[in-house]
Amino acid sequence: MASAEMQSQDRVASPRLSADRVREILIVDDHPLMCDALALTLKISFGLRNVRTARSLAAAQEQIRNQGAPDAVILDLNLPDARGAEGLVTLRRQIPDVPITMISADLENAMISAAMAAGAQGYISKSLGREALVDSLRRMWEGERVTPDSYQPEHAGEEDAARAELARRFATLTPQQMKILRLICQGKANKEISYELSIAEATVKTHITAIMSKINARRRTQAVLLANSVRLFEPA
Amino acid sequence: MASAEMQSQDRVASPRLSADRVREILIVDDHPLMCDALALTLKISFGLRNVRTARSLAAAQEQIRNQGAPDAVILDLNLPDARGAEGLVTLRRQIPDVPITMISADLENAMISAAMAAGAQGYISKSLGREALVDSLRRMWEGERVTPDSYQPEHAGEEDAARAELARRFATLTPQQMKILRLICQGKANKEISYELSIAEATVKTHITAIMSKINARRRTQAVLLANSVRLFEPA
DNA sequence: TGCGGCTACGACTTCGGTTGTATTGGCCGA
DNA sequence: TCGGCCAATACAACCGAAGTCGTAGCCGCA
After folding, report:
1. pTM beyond cutoff 0.85
2. A2 in helix, strand or coil?
3. Please, are residues A60 and A86 in contact by the beta-carbon 8 Å criterion?
4. pLDDT over 80 (residue B158)
5. Chain D bases under 7 Å from protein CB?
6. Nearest Cα to A74, choosing from A43, A44, A35?
7. Where is the PTM 4-aspartylphosphate found along the chain (chains A, B) (predicted)?
């Protein structure tokens, strides 16, 4: 676990933003414990007195209507009433000028780029330590767009693309090959498969070789894992 | 959001257990903020002085070796070095008589039943409020097995009994066997495994034979499927 | 008629799994 | 404290299963 787990993205000139001007913040998270922990950390580290919290997107919106806009928002990515980037988009419509930091346990590349594309000021992991967290927030409130170290913007969607490519490869399997793969994914041996399909074991092996070459696997266990990764055959 | 989100499962007679006897607990979670929040809550609500924390399964194990066993454990389901039920199984080997509470944001039915089958004292959601959390823990420490309201063990008929039995079998795996099984479930060949663990391929094979005899599998692909069926190792 | 994809088979090589055995370290009772 | 014992780990030799390669029949189509 590194101490400063954040990388600088780009330092935009944002005259309106400054960590000093952040006096009141709003935390939107449905985990009460996490809310408390965040609030406490912020109070101590930034000397903030006004830390507001909300348990849902709807509650946050109403609170902003009633009590006015905060100087910054920390928004959980997985709220009961707004999973994903939806909550971010909604909130930004209401308070376009307030920096919104996304927070989540999820470090998937696709998720981060979606959030950043939707206008988040930054994205921090729930597994960050106190110091790194505080540092990241400070930088965000000074106008920097901050993403986790692990985030590779250029590879965004790459794993998704790989998944799609994999699915395409599975689509090239012939009917017989598909039958055989299904049986493989049930843990059957070649001999059993040959019996069920009434063909020679040698033939089964040939098909398996073809299958594995198509989906780029070397061992049959890998074939099983790949098939499961695209949910080729759903549970028995 | 209900206030008391827990349901009673069954009140087992457990003379050794009593909430009063819980004086020292260990929290295993890789989210520092969550750790703090939990620790603080417990200190306040139970008047506990000794709340130990660990950031990973390995750290927890070492701490237990060095400082002895705590009276109770709260274990995150998604640790960097042990996703899924694996961590629970491993810890229970080390401290079989200490009640272990699983905690996770994930409320999937299958996940919960996997954890309970693997011998957890209870399962609580990270989105629980303080009161409900404290109440649930107290009941667990008195011997009750507590699961979230949303959990429906109903389709936990025979199929779940089989699952529980399976989980118990996985729990008998030795550390080395567990390592090897994890690598098998990543699609690795025996030779690769032997290299990674710096042992002879022959040894790997011996362990595999032992593993398969314990979980009642004949082929390694079946071992992978069985491990996945109890969510022993969660996806990377 | 010839070409390419699907299916089928056998011979050969490599890998996976079984069995038998040795070594170590912890635990328990004499 | 010392054997004795068991569990865990380690290795090699053997054999059956898995996977590779070369080949062939059978379509449908140009």
Report:
1. no
2. coil
3. no
4. no
5. 7-13, 17-22
6. A35
7. 76
